[in-house]
Amino acid sequence: LLAMPKRQVFYSFHYKADAWRAAQVRNMGVVDGNAPVSDNDWEQITRGGDKAIKRWIDEQMKGRSCVVVLIGSQTAGRKWINYEIEKGWRDGKGVVGVYIHNLKDQDDKQTSKGKNPFDYIRVEVPGRWFTVTKRLSEIVKAYDPPYSDSKKVYDYIKQNLADWVEEAVAIRNQ
After folding, report:
1. What share of the chain is helix, strand, coil (3-state, %, to 5)?
2. What is the pLDDT of residues 116-127, one digit of tens each?
3. Rounded CA separation 29/16 (Å)
4. 89, 91, 109, 146: which is deepest, by most CB within 10 A?
5. What are phi and psi of 33, to 5 degrees?
6. pTM of the predicted model, to two decimals?
């Protein structure tokens, strides 16, 4: 039995609030993600304005099969996270959410659970006779680890992330 190669994913998250938590998930090594960007690099990119940010996101998403949205307390409704989700969906990539509010940050703190970012995005779904507009949250899944202990949350995400990505790709391919 051959081991499947790791999926290439794009991680979407609120940088300022959740970079530390996101790094924990990215460093699990369960799936291969886009390379982390440093504060300095991000400042350089944002100086170029919206076009430069879009170009950077578009470039980072090339060759990825899934967008993994790491959901913290302030993720939902953010302009660039919405763009990443919408672009991933439009480009036929799997999309999945993982709540990370119970992972501890660099100050050993957890945060409150944020809203589901997929509630804020509408997509057109072809029906038998006409196209229907649905909230993306009616189609894609957002997983909330059933623990409050940071270590258990980490272990739960590590055990399940690869399966969640595969499921998201399968949902998108339907």
Report:
1. 45, 20, 40
2. 999 999 998 888
3. 22
4. 89
5. -110, 175
6. 0.92
Strand order in the sheet with 142-143: 32-33, 8-12, 66-71, 94-99, 142-143
**Site of tokens 């993982």:** 98
Residue ranges of alpha helices (H) inside the chain are 15-26, 39-47, 49-61, 79-90, 150-173
Task: Kindly state the tokens that stand for 132.
Answer: 């229907």
Amino acid at 64: R
Q: Which residues contact 73 (CB under 8 A, 6 or more apart)?
A: 17, 101, 111, 112, 113, 114
Q: How many CB atoms lie within 10 A of CB 29?
A: 9
Q: At what angle do helices 150-173 and 15-26 cross, to 10 degrees?
A: 90
Any idea which residue has 């995400």 for tokens? 157
Q: Measuring CA to CA, which residue among 141, 43, 138, 121 is closest to residue 78?
A: 121
